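Hi Q.,

Before the meeting this afternoon, I wanted you to have the coenzyme A prediction in hand. No need to reply - just skim if you have a minute. The sequence and ligand are here:
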Amino acid sequence: MISSRANTATVPELELVLASDPDVIKQVWINNKVHFAPYASDEAWLEKSRIRTNVDLGPGMGHSIWVLVPRGKGNDPTSILSAAHIILRPGLISKITSKATSELPTNKELNAQELKHSNTQHILASQQNGHLTESTHELKEIAVAYVLLVFTPIEHRSRGFANAMLRMVMDKLKHQTDPVVDLSYLFSAIEPTFYANLGWQMMRSRELVLDQLKSHVFPDLPLVDASAAGAKYRINNVTESDLREIVNEDVELLRSEMAKCTLEAPRGQNLHFVTILPHEEAFRTHFEMTRYSNLHIDHINRPITRIGVRLVSIDEHYKGLDAFVIWTYIPSSSRICILRLRYQTVHQLQCLLREAMKEAQEWGFSMVSVWDLNDKDALAATGMFNRDRTSWWLCVAQMEHENFGGSITMVANGAYTWGL
Ligand SMILES: CC(C)(COP(=O)(O)OP(=O)(O)OC[C@H]1O[C@@H](n2cnc3c(N)ncnc32)[C@H](O)[C@@H]1OP(=O)(O)O)[C@@H](O)C(=O)NCCC(=O)NCCS
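Predicted structure with the ligand bound:
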């Protein structure tokens, strides 16, 4: 389990401990502030960490901190050799088995039908370069481990401690039963081979950027306000008090989409399609942290009044959640970052992005970004440009207990920021 370098180091016996001692937990945060928030005061960073760790994601889920220490030193804050944080989150696997195939409609046909731009379907279609098939689905709730804030104090670096700790953490997760963890993921800010050597597989990680210069693509957009002729929707602001209703409905829609994706891989192959489910409490905690950071770390004293918009049908009898966006504010990189996006048509997407753009302009930011929106029609229509992330990679590891057999073919977040 422990890397040879750690075994031969001056500390022969190491132990992985779930940090519970308040002094150890505090020391972990003080240590990693050097790297993750050097500009913040200790006090502000600790308060932000308190908000972050209090997130309630349901039974068996939530935030924990693991430390590597010399055996027997689990309660000694000065003995931390390396540390990692884990957030267990609810997710969903759809195992799709194809029966027959036929060609996909061409892009032109898709446009003619104004085909629904369901997030999941488009990801499947474009990734598989695919076939339309009859398929069976098994849907399973899973727990997914998000690994973050991996940190070795500077004086202990290059002795194999982070490697040893991550191997032990992975081993723990593999053998955990309540809940069973099927998958782990992280965003690597360093050369991803470091994580690949430990079993994490590198996945595509891209972001779309809409900068101010591109806003010229929007002026001709037909208005969707109720006052406009032929308008089908009006734009409603989304506030934190709307989160419960929107997220719950969004999750229900995701479940049904996951259960009946019709676009498939070549005949005879199984697809394991995984998504992390958006979680109301994750959003809530996120906004609490953002408010705190804006005020106490970035020193921006500006209230957050809306966290997105929703397109509401002007037909009062129709209550469906067709299109919405939830965003967050990142002053340090002068951007609005989209956390969750749902749309059926390109026109709806344009309306949502236009609102995000307006909000960015009001805050004096230079861009709007969204991760992994893999939809070519949408890209063409919005003038967004898609770039591979060069500073962050998504890495995913499947646990070995083979709940579903075979490997995970595809992981998608349906335009949901996993790091939330
Ligand atoms: C990354 C980190 C956790 C590694 O801890 P460690 O205990 O020194 O790691 P190990 O001794 O097990 O492995 C060291 C190897 O990791 C790799 N590595 C470490 N930092 C790296 C970096 N910034 N970029 C690329 N590879 C890196 C190198 O291959 C290194 O080998 P070397 O010592 O021969 O150069 C540590 O450098 C750290 O805390 N960095 C700051 C926080 C951070 O970047 N965390 C990762 C966020 S994704």
